[in-house]
Design goal:
five-stranded antiparallel β-sheet, single chain, binds fe (ii) ion, 10 strands, 23% strand
Amino acid sequence: MTDKQHRIQALIQAIVAYLEAHRSDAPGVDLTLDKLASMDLSCRQQRDVPPQGTRHDQVLTQAIADITEPKLLEIAKCLSAAKDDLVWREDNAQFYPPGADLGEGYIKCNLHSLLIGADACGHHHPDFSLGIFMLGPRTLYRDHNHDAPELYLNLSERSGWRFRSGEWQDYPAGSLIWNAAGEPHATRVYDLPFISVFVWLENVSSRCNVIPFDDWAEIEQGLAQKSI
Ligand SMILES: [Fe+2]
């Protein structure tokens, strides 16, 4: 096993350990752990994929450096060590149905790396994804849903979320967010980049449907002008 594979393996283990310690914090953590327990995540099953860097490396480096919550330090340390070993990709318009309007902010700076999943740099799985997800500062990730049930572990200090048509609420580093299949959700990012662990438990090839809300322009303006 190479040093690179060791670093990726350590990152996966740090994430799993956090989830195990927070089993009851959100619905979906148990389901995620059950799925993980059914997989062979041993070193000998690990893939060896050439790394792929990103044009957003500076934002990513800052996002990782900003993870200061003590209970997330092991994940932060492992992520920092493995950052240049991973395959970083951006979502682009092709990932969404024709005409889906994710907004300029999302297209400008979104990034992810799959640690487990189809074409992942850690372990292959045909219908489960676990990885790292990042958005640039002052971004609205517009309301959307998908058939894949989704779990987020927020690593950055503060991020705004709303579910269905509910009120915005801020969540701290270490919080867990569960989006059941088909449930609408949106995220807004303030001054620091947003970075998280994300999991899609099944239906990973389901499409992401953007759900129009008439306040997007207002929120995007508020974020740009720093009034939010
Ligand atoms: Fe989502």
